[in-house]
């Protein structure tokens, strides 16, 4: 459900211009013609690009657990809620609804920073009942989005995990991860790190509307190379695959990833949970009106006739002939490029609780 007030067609550098109402709102606003031409005036006014607001949060817990068979990790950590990259397809957008914020423009302009993430992480790792297993960083929102340059929350997390010899994985579409190679490199040499770089397209013009504040595709490939040269096992995540938009590039992305030094390829198909669906459909009509109906028809073919279905086993890859065709193309491209589809096993046996690390530093 979106506001019925006139909305600008786009805002430069933002994924959407709409503050769509979230699913928990009780009230909806609708424009009213008062006879003075107010609606036309509002619609014609130039809209200033909204600035990013960082809201500090003191989190109670920072390690989340899951038992989903679709996700190859049991623990995750996200230093931020919301993401300034502004990817229109982001499946995490609906999480802003729980904050009474819009999954639309608010998601990419009102960023929640868990300023006590390092302190809480040390507390949770130090609990007597804690059992170490790989922690996935950035699975919901990018841990290296622009605000990280200033706050360094992700760097603090990696410092703790490094000192505790804890295994972790990272997924990002930012070259900002290169800043932390001094922490990631040694952990990778010890077999405790794997990194995935998300590359949605190789087309810079398409990237500017799909991932408006993420780094350009060629820059992401340079990051893959930088990680590989530093001895960090790195994969490329072709995600999400969107029929008729970036889907034609599957083979080219895999080949470019191989040339950049990636060792593995992973992918998901487009997911449109909750408020993401109307946001994405509006984006399609704005940028690709000639193929919008074809795109949504194929999406629904892979989702049992719906915009989205959340069943385990199919929610990441879809189902039906089109989903099978995408899977076959990925597999063939991976074999042709000499890559793999597997994440390397990480060493979870060397973990040392934070209190023992501190005690050891006294001697």
Characteristic key phrases:
rSAM_sf; alpha/beta; catalytic activity; 13 helices; 12% strand; 10 strands; pyruvate-formate lyase- activating enzyme; iron-sulfur cluster binding; 363 residues
List the helices and strands and how they pair.
Layout: H1 38-44, E1 53-57, E2 64-65, E3 75-77, E4 80-81, H2 105-109, E5 110-114, H3 117-125, E6 135-137, H4 148-151, H5 153-163, E7 168-172, H6 181-189, E8 193-198, H7 204-210, H8 217-229, E9 234-241, H9 250-260, E10 264-269, H10 276-287, H11 292-301, H12 321-337, H13 354-360
Parallel strand pairs: 1-5, 3-6, 6-7, 7-8, 8-9, 9-10
Antiparallel strand pairs: 2-3, 4-5
Helix pairs in contact: 3-5, 5-6, 9-12
Q: Would you give an account of this structure?
A:
- With 363 residues, the chain is α/β, with parallel strands linked by helices.
- It has 13 helices and 10 strands.
- The chain has one domain (54-343, 351-360): Alpha-Beta Horseshoe (pyruvate-formate lyase- activating enzyme).
- It has helices spanning 38-44, 105-109, 117-125, 148-151, 153-163, 181-189, 204-210, 217-229, 250-260, 276-287, 292-301, 321-337, 354-360, and strands at 53-57, 64-65, 75-77, 80-81, 110-114, 135-137, 168-172, 193-198, 234-241, 264-269.
- A 7-stranded mixed sheet has the order 2-3-6-7-8-9-10, covered by helices on one side.
- Helix 3 runs parallel beside helix 5 (153-163), helix 5 (153-163) packs parallel to helix 6 (181-189) and helix 9 packs parallel to helix 12 (321-337).
């Amino acid at each position: 459900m979106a506001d019925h007030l006139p909305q600008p067609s786009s805002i430069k550098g933002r994924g959407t211009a709409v503050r769509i109402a979230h699913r928990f709102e009780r009230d909806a606003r609708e424009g009213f013609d008062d006879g003075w031409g107010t609606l036309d005036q509002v619609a014609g006014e130039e809209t200033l690009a909204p600035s990013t607001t960082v809201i500090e949060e003191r989190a109670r817990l920072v390690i989340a657990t899951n038992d989903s068979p679709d996700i190859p990790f049991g623990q995750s950590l996200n230093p931020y809620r919301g993401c300034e990259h502004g990817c229109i397809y982001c499946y995490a957008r609906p999480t802003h609804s729980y904050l009474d914020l819009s999954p639309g423009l608010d998601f990419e302009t009102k960023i929640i920073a868990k300023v006590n993430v390092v302190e809480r992480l040390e507390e949770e790792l130090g609990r007597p009942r804690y059992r170490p297993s790989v922690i996935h960083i950035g699975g919901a929102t990018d841990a290296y989005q622009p605000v990280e340059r200033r706050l360094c929350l992700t760097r603090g997390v990696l410092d703790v995990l490094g000192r505790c010899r804890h295994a972790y994985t990272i997924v990002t579409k930012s070259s900002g991860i290169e800043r932390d190679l001094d922490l990631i490199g040694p952990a990778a040499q010890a077999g405790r790190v794997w990194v995935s770089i998300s590359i949605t397209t190789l087309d810079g013009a398409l990237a500017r509307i799909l991932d408006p504040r993420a780094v350009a595709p060629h820059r992401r490939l340079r990051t893959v190379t930088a990680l590989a040269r530093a001895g960090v096992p790195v994969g490329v995540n072709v995600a999400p695959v969107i029929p008729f938009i970036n889907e034609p590039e599957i083979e080219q992305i895999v080949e470019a990833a191989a040339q950049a030094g990636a060792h593995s390829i992973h992918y998901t198909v487009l997911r449109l949970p909750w408020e993401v669906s109307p946001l994405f459909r509006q984006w399609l009509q704005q940028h690709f009106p000639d193929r919008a109906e074809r795109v949504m028809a194929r999406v629904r073919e892979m989702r049992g006739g719906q915009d989205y279905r959340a069943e385990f086993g199919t929610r990441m890859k879809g189902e039906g002939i089109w989903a099978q065709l995408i899977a076959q193309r990925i597999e063939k491209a991976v074999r042709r490029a000499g890559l793999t589809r597997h994440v390397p096993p990480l060493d979870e046996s060397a973990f040392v609780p934070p209190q023992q690390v501190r005690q050891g530093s006294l001697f």
